[in-house]
Amino acid sequence: MNKTFYQSFLDKTYEPQGLPSDYPVPDKEGLLFYIQRNQNYNTVVYEVNKTELGDWNMNDPMKVYWIKYNQLQEECELNYIQNKLAYGYNSQIINNDLIEFSFVSYKKQFFIQKVGQNDFRVITDLSGSYAYLNNMYVYAEEFGVFPEVKFVELFGMRIDSMGPCYEKIIP
Hints:
By secondary structure, this protein is mostly beta strands. It has helices spanning 3-11, 80-85, and strands spanning 31-37, 43-48, 62-68, 74-77, 89-95, 98-103, 106-114, 120-126, 129-141, 148-158, 164-169.
């Protein structure tokens, strides 16, 4: 994943988008997708969770954590509220190569598919097309304890053509 890929979204004639082109792109082994927000560069990363033996941990299929984009690029766990009300997920095993999941904060259906020995992809419906999910951008306004989400953008690649795919959700 690189800036050129995301610039292709900005060059399309989609609705106006909130994803700033200067946001950092995580480069992590096992990365499935990530979520960024308008508040700062800090990024929630979802990567494949493996057991000590290197097998996919199907009972807890994703490792979810923050990358704090400060000078150290610290990695830290989600806190309890973030995990239970925003960025956490619920999952269900479909078979040995497929898991269904949804976020605790939004019930859209997503799938993690094992597509090779060590290759995994997240699949969902984006604007009527099946797509591999790359990243999400959440625009929210701070009002007290909990931010109010104004819109969420999902970016991916269409499975049938590998072209860019985009969906904007307004809650």
